[in-house]
Structure formats: C-alpha cells, structure tokens
Fold:
Amino acid sequence: MSTSAFADSQHPITWPAGFTAAASFTFDVDAESCVIAHDPTSTRRMSLMSHQSYGPKVAVPRLLQILARQEVRGTFFIPGFTAESYPDVVRQIVDGGHEIAHHGYLHEPMQGIDAAIEGSYLDRGLEALEKVAGVRPVGYRAPWWELNWHSPALLADRGFLYDSSLLDGDAPYRMSVAPGSPSGASDARDIVEIPVDWALDDWEQYAFYPGVTGSGVIESPAKVLEMWTLEAEAHHSQESCFVLTNHPFISGRPSKAVALEQLIERVKGMDGMWVTTLEQIAEHTKATVSEVHTHARIDVPTYPGAGARFKSGQVQVPALN
Structure:
C-alpha cells in the first residue's frame, strides 16, 4: 500500500500502446433533480423548472450531435430521477454508444449522511437506470462530488468499477475500500478513482440562476475555451488524464456548445491523446496498475498539546509538532 497516489508528478499508470495521455468528456444530466433536492418547493417555480429542463429537452440532443460529428464517446452521469423523467432522452444517449453512469437518485445532498441512507440512494438510482437504460452502471459520481468515508465500500459492495468524485490527483489510480466501512476494516478490495477538478467544471464558469446559484458572472465561452485548452495541453504534456465535467443545461446552450466542440477538436488533435469513456480508462487502470492507494484520515486535534495526526487502516503518520 502507498500513502500517496502520486510522487513528483509521476503517475503510476502507462497508457495503451500508441497513447501518451488520456481525455474524457463527461456530462452530468442533472435536469431538475439538483434544484429539487436543494429545495423541494422549487417545483412550484415554472421558470426555474424550464431552466433545468432545457438540458434533456434541447441540450442533450445538441450534444449528442456534436459527439457524433466528432466521433467521440462520452460518459453521461444520470440521476435516477432524470432517467425516470426523460426515458426517451436516456435511450438516445445509449443508442449513441455512450456510457451511462450513476449520479445519485435525486442528486441528493451527501455530506454527513449515514451508510444506510447513502446505500438506499445508490440502490434506487441503480434500479432506475437499469429499468430505463437497460444497463447496470459501473461508474459513479457523487452529487456535488461529495464522497463520505464509507462511500467506497458501498460502491464496491454493489460491483462498481470506478468513482469520479475526488480531487487528489491528475491521473486515475486504484484506491482501497476505506477502513471502518460497512464491509469491515480488513476489507482489501479496491475501486478505481478518476479524479476531477473544479477548474474543469462548467458550473464554475457559466452557472447562474437568481437566488439559486452562481455569482451572476457568466463567463465568455472564448475565455472558457482558452482556459480548458490550457488545462488539456498541460495534462497532455504531463501524460495525465484530462476529465471535463459539463452539465447539458449549461454547456448545451448555443455559444457554449460551439466552444465545446472546438475544444473537442483541439483535444482530439493532440498527438497521442486517448479520447474515450471513463469506463475504458477505469478498465485500463484496473488491469495495468498494481499500486493501491490508501487515503489517510485526519484526527481532529485536541487542545492544548496535540497537533495534526493522520490515520488509516494501513498507514500511521507521526504527529506533526
């Protein structure tokens, strides 16, 4: 076991023959789910609901056309509620050859919930996606990228191959099931983690609805295209993994969709860049990486006299003085 997934910018992964880096274009099809989870009375607001429904009604078909033109397969993280609300749209995604992945049932707030409640969200989302899409997803992205320490074990218990919710790396890695999880401290199983980054999320660039989210500053797609191109070039040069997160109701709007297609063209044109789904990246990681990372937890310091202390099932780091 290793205390760090990466050291000195070196990643414990080599890409398939002919490739030197990887990239994936992912889409969180939240639709109405995220605002309803935040405030159930949102359903009374016709304009807000229309803002969210733009995603499945208008944006997803546009994005599917872009991906088809570019001959790129994406990964679509879909809450179960979205799947049940827009089954025809989800089937269009499947028919386009794209990966369907799990994103909660109602994009539920995840922070601090117990394992039993979180497990019920996972199971309800799985049931909805299996019924609508005819697939059992192998990938998961937590709503708001908010994993709990018991989450990896819950995912492993349900046969997930990978998660894409953590922010501690530039390339995928294998992570052990957290000690103290429902499966027990001696559980040696692992799943693949494919890290994300808030700089590579369209929410921070474009999302705004009065009184709901955002600062009111909606960035120019030209600025966003430049920023994301720089990020892709950096990942390419460091032989790491560029993962872009888009929300259809945001990046499926006309000028933003044009910029996204320009970005896809640029990324595809990078020599040795493997542009594929997260599922394929996770399968390659699981098959080729032998190192398994264990996340250390921080003990809450007591006052006076105690400094920070990390702990995990396999690793003990001395207290910092």
